[in-house]
Every structure is written in C-alpha cells, then in structure tokens.
Amino acid sequence: MLKTRGLLISLEGIDGCGKTTQVELLGGKLAQSGVDYITVREPGGTVVGEKIRQILLDNQYSPSLQAEMLLYMAARSELAKQVILPALLSGKIIVCDRFTDSTLAYQGYGGGADLSLIRLLNLKATDGTAPHITVLLDLTVEEAVKRRGASADRMESKDIRFHRRVRNGYLEIARQDPHRVSVVDASEVEEDQSEIIWQLVQGKIAGSFSARSAYEF
Ligand code: TMP
Q1: Whose CA is nearest to atom 7 of ligand 1?
Q2: Among candidates 106, 123, 126, which has minimal Cα distance to 65?
Q3: What is the pLDDT of residue 4?
Q4: Is position 54 within any domain?
Q5: Cα(165)–Cα(72) distance, rounded to whole angstroms?
Q6: Entry pTM
Q7: Does 212 reside within a domain?
Q8: Mean pLDDT of all residues in the chain?
Q9: Per the structure, how many domains does the chain have?
Q10: Which of 102, 117, 122 to mutate to test the pocket of ligand 1 (most atoms within 8 A of CB)?
C-alpha cells in the first residue's frame, strides 16, 4: 500500500451536480493506484451523523435555520473526530462528499446565516479540520433540477432562488480561496470531469511526497 501524509479532499456542488458519481470514480482511481483511502459523506459517516442526516433530509420536519446549521455542524463534528482526524493521522487519503463549504453555501449564502459564525462554530466543531483540496462541480440550477428528476428530499425541495444563491455562494467561496478550490464544469462528460479531478489529486499527492522529502532530508 502506497503511504501518503494524509490528505483531505472534498467534493462540493449543488444537488444534482453529479458529485457522488465523481466521488465513486475518484475512489476507483485511488484504489487502482494502490493508495490507502476512504470515502465518507456529509452529513453522515458515523452512527449519530447518519441519524442526523435522516432528520435533516426528511420532508416532514422544518427546523429553523439555526437548528439546521447546528445539526449539520454536529454531524460534521462526529465525522471529523471519529473518522477524518484518525484517518489523516494514519496517512490516509479521505475523499469527502461535502464538507464545511456546504454549510457556508447552503445555510450561509442560501439561507442567510452569518458566515463568520459558521466559520467559528465549524472551527470548534472539527478541531480545525479543513480540506487540502476542494473540487467544486459547477452546474446551472436548471440543469441540476433536470438531472435530479421528480423525487426531492427536504433540502432539494427548497425553491429555485435558494438553489441559485447556493450556486453563487459556492462560486464566491472558490473566488476567495482559489488555491484550495478548483472549479470543474459539471456539464462536461463524466469521464472528462473525472480525469480533471484525478490530475488535481495526483498533483497534490506528488506535492505531498516532495514536501515530505524536502523536510526529511
Ligand atoms: P447529499 O444529498 O449531497 O449527500 O447532501 C445532503 C443535503 O444536505 C444536500 O441538499 C446539501 C445539504 N447540506 C447542507 O445544507 N449543509 C451542509 O452543511 C451539508 C453537509 C449538506
């Protein structure tokens, strides 16, 4: 098994952008390369996190914006402490289907929650865990709605203006943090997107090795 320094990669985007498919394709490429990796999703990935996910996506509930934001944060806290931090420490690559940017985009830009409050709470909730690379799969809301089809969970059921704010929020996050966040056109063929993501990840893994050698020798 190829040893790395530990790398957290998050994939982000609006519902229907094809993120989960890209997580699977990236996982396949990492597996083929013999890299020690795990994939996780947010909210979820722990017993408590999966229960919180059920509550958050259930159409029969309507939590306040603050409750919603804190529930996402609670799920992330469990995932970061129980799964991500130990995996990072043991040198694994973690591919995360959503992370903090989702709370900033959905509850912050989409819902109107205070962005600096989200950042502060997130720092406490995750002990400062943050992705080394983030891939933003960008797609128009109209195209994403078409791809999603008829059934919709509680978040997907929010109106189109909400989803437009979320998309624009993501693009703003990418503009503010271009070294971490790479925007990939999610209207491209799936395999082409996957190849672009793979190049980004390989570059980061290679960088991780050379940084380690430079440090060690
Ligand atoms: P998923 O279906 O892509 O796994 O994501 C679950 C839904 O939860 C999706 O609509 C995005 C939303 N979400 C937030 O609103 N805030 C968050 O912090 C996270 C992680 C997800």
Answers
A1: 155
A2: 106
A3: 55
A4: yes
A5: 19
A6: 0.94
A7: no
A8: 93
A9: 1
A10: 102
